[in-house]
Structures are given as structure tokens and as C-alpha cells.
Amino acid sequence: MADFDPTLTEAAVRDLARPQSYDRGENYYDEDAVVELVRRGETIRAAVEGSQYEPYQVRIELDETGVVDTACSCPYDHGGICKHRVAVLLTYVRDPDRIDQRPPVSELVADADPEDIRDVLVDLVESRPELAEQVESRLETRESGEEGDDARNRTADINRESIRQQVQYILRPTEGRSAHAYDPYEAVETDVEKLRNVLDQVRTAVEAGDGETALDILEPLADELMDEEWLALSYDDSHAIFEFFDEVDRVLAEALLTADLSEAERADWEDRLWAWEQEMGGYTHQPPYSVALEAAQRGWDFEPVQQAMQGDIGYAGLWEGDPPWYAEDFVRARLNVLERQGRIEEYLNLAEAVDLIDDYVTMLVEEGRIDEAIEYSRRNLYSPDEALTLAKALREHDRPKAALEIAQHGLTLNDSSGQAELAEWLCDRATSMGESEIALEAAIATFDALPTLAAYQAIEELAGEEWPTVREELLESLADKDTKQRTARRHVEIFLYAERYDEAIAIADRFSDYKVVEPVVKAVWEEHPNWTINACKEQARPIIDEGQSQRYHHAVDWLEYAGKAAQASGNLDEWRAYVEDLRDEHYQKYKLRPMLEDLLEEFNGRTHTEDHD
Q1: Burial level of 478, CB count in 10 A (0-12/13-18/19+)?
Q2: 189 lies in the same domain as 281
Q3: Percent of all residues in the chain with a pLDDT value above 90, rounded to a whole number
């Protein structure tokens, strides 16, 4: 069992997610969508029931400081963690008793009989044959290791044929893929994730400075990807396989820049990469392997890069004419290798030359050159995203005041991208430091960039005696905003909380989405019964008329709210006649008819009870 219990707050969960993802994750939490929540040591695993037939699988890695890594089987990739991971973390924070605490697998097998472990492993592989290649590869890698300290300091030889077989198994249709037949999109995402597991071995080698081993794994992986089997993973609505190709390209570039290759070996890789790039050029106008090909062709000897690393050239001088589309990846591959090799001044010169401000100032902070980073940032920051990166780095290096100053400066920049995230971060940090004025300004900036109920409530808590004035300013500002379909529900929640029902009703009238109308109905049915009755009829009628049998219960729920509103306004007889007409008109819909009869009976019971009282 874990011997630590990290302190995790809802504010920390907010820091990990975009506001939209947090709100949606909280909805999943409220709907009890998180199931099978198990913690083993530092790892939490859970299933979250979502929009797909199968629940999404979530993994959370913890340490004493909190969350260190997360993963989810959903395809979300828009910044921050997804709503499913938010739901799991909120469950961890709010309902710790729901977590099934179990010992880590390492503890389970520590004292187990080797024969029992062998039997369990065999049974597992027989039930999941896709694991066989991985087991074989790991065992052969261990057997190929040499005795002694020198051998332990070297990465074991790679079994290329085993890697090739793993990739072939994933790319070629097998019984293992048939389990996902109901959802081709999810099948593609799952299989691409298996390919990433192979690529993770490459990353481990590259990060250890072992470019040769990385290339030994990459060669069969990339070679197998050139067969047309990969097209089975190019599902219409998924870009996962093309994103994976780009990942391979970037890692391959770093491996080539790390490895000590002979001229012949480099020329061989150059020929191979040129052929692969030409092959992929028929499928995308930005073919993968362009970055790796540049690394093979130019290496570290490319004169403009050498000049930039010495601080003698700017971004424009790196290229003849306009930079290619892969220019940033070309530079980042070199920055990553320079950082691993401890070549910090060359790293800084190159990052500054190409205006990678985040990388430049973060490295300055990492090197303890904090005042230099702050001064540079004040002159060169262009976006709230860059300001947030530096502010977080300063806070991690125990410069909280400087972090607040940079974050405040970031909110003054004329760029809306990332402003809401920066303002929310600043509000949380300023609050924890007792800087109430800064926290209030940041909370208002958060609301202005992305109005949510949570942001509104944060301002209410911080404003104190100023709240009545601030409240009116916020609501007036919100009323002036152009409400879109994607923001309608959030705006409705705020107006309902503020008891500004007319504004909420006006939004509900513009958008027929039940997620917008439903909270308004639940809030106003007593004070605005006639509007409620009409709104509920408009929601229920299409479900019934179109024979959406799986949604009949939703139609009845709408009619029930209409009934409550009718009863409150003294129009119950008119409502009852309406429901009876529906029942008679759709008498042949055998699933609907008894539901409507039960609804009528329920309201008859309510009427009789009131008469008796």
C-alpha cells in the first residue's frame, strides 16, 4: 500500500484542465459516471462512463506533491487534462471513501511463489495474445544483457525482429481488433496507442543519450509503417495515425542528432528517410520524416545552426527564403538534445535566435538566472501563454512575488489566447498568498475571458463589500456578450444563480438544446409557469412525434415539469387534456402509452392529496 497521501485540492485540479474540461468533468462527477475506482500504490485507475458504449479508462500517477502524470483512453488533445480525468480527480478529492485501496502489483508478487507467477503470466498471455510479443521482447532483452557493472551501464541489444513482429501484429487485422468493431474510431485510437508503447522504448533510449539503441528500435518500426497496412488506421474522423507519424519523425530526428554515426551510416539513413518521405508525400501535403531527413542531411554541421548556437545569427538567417513548415520541430529537436547534453549556453543562444521565448526564459530560470529571465520577459513576452509558462517556473523556483508580477503583466498583453487560463492561475496563486486585490482583479479577468459560474462565484467570494457594484458590472457585461451555442449553458447557469431569470429565459428561447433549456425550466417553473409549459412541450413533442422510443422517458420528464408548472398556475386541467390527447394520438406506441398513463395517474394522486389537505 502507498505510504503517502498527497494533498490534492479542487484548485489543483482546475490548474490541470481547461475551464470547459473542468466544467464537463464536474458534470460527470455529479452524474456518478466514475466507476471501478482503484488505487494501487502511486497509481489510480478508474472507468468513466461517457458517450461511447465502453467506459473510458483513466490512469492517474501520484507522488507526495500531488499529480505527476495522467492518461485517458479518450482522444482528447486540446490542452490540459480531459473531462474524464477531471471527474476521477474530483472523486478522489471529494469522495475518498469510494476509492478501493489495494496493494501495488509489486507487493503482490514480492513473496509469491515463482511457479504461481509463471502460471499467472501464461494465463494472462493466453487471454490477451497481443501481450505475447511484448513478453518475448522483454525476456530476450534481459537474456542478452552482459554481466558486470559496465554491462549494466549499457542498454541491452535490441531484438529487431521482435519489434518488427509487434508492429506487424498491431497493423494487421486480427481477432484482437474485432473487439472494437462497434466503434472504428476507438479501435484506431487504441491501436495507435499500442504503437506509441513501442515508441516509448525509443524515447527512453534517447533520453538516456543512447541514440544507437533508439535507432535500432526505430528502423524496424518505421520500416513496417511503410507497408500499406497502416492505412487501416486512417479512419475518417481520426488523425491519430498521422499524429503518430509526426511523433516518430521528431523522435527519429533526436536519435540521429544523439547517435555517433559514421558517414556511411548517416548516408544510409538519409537514403532511407528520403524514400519514406516520398512514400508518405502521396497521403499528406506535410509528409512525416522531413525533420529527421534534415537531421540526417545537416546534423550539427549546418553552418546557420552553428552560428545561432554561438549567438551570431537570428531566425531569418537559418533559412534561405521562408522557413519550411517543419522549422520549429527542426529547432526543438536540437534544443532537446542540447539540454540533455548540458550545453546550456548553446541552447539559450539557439532558443533566443528563433524567438522560442518560453524555452529561453524557462531555461534561464532552471539555471538560476531568474532576474535575467524576468527582465528579458518584460521586454519580449508576446502572449499570456508565455507569461503563464514563466510564472509557473518562477513559482516552482520559490519566487512567488515575481511569478505574480509576470502573470499580471501577461494579462496586459494584446493577445486573447490563454488569457483565461493565466487569469485563473493568477487568481488561485494570489489568493493563497493573501494578495486579495490582485486575486479579485484576476478573477474578474478570468470571468471576462471565459464567463463561468465558478469564476462568478470566485469573484463573489473575493469582492466583499464591493460585491453589489461588481455584481451588476459582471451581469451587464455578460448580457452584452454575443452568446453562442457553445457558451449558452454557461451563461444560463450564471444568470440563474444571480436570479436574473429573464436573461436566462431569453437565452433558452434562442437555443433549443435541452442542456440549455432544462436548467432554466427547473429554476423558473413556479415563477414563470406559462413559459415553462410551452418550453417543455417544445422539447417533448419532437421525441414523441419522431418515435424516439429510447428517449420517451425524457419526453415524460419534460411533461412532468409542464404539469408542475400547470398545477402552480391553476391550469392543471388544460395540461391533463393535452397529455390525454398525446396518449390517444400515439396509442399504438406501446412503450409510450403506459408511461403517459402513469404520469396522469401521478398527477391525479397529487390533486386528491391536495383536496384532502
Answers
A1: buried
A2: yes
A3: 32
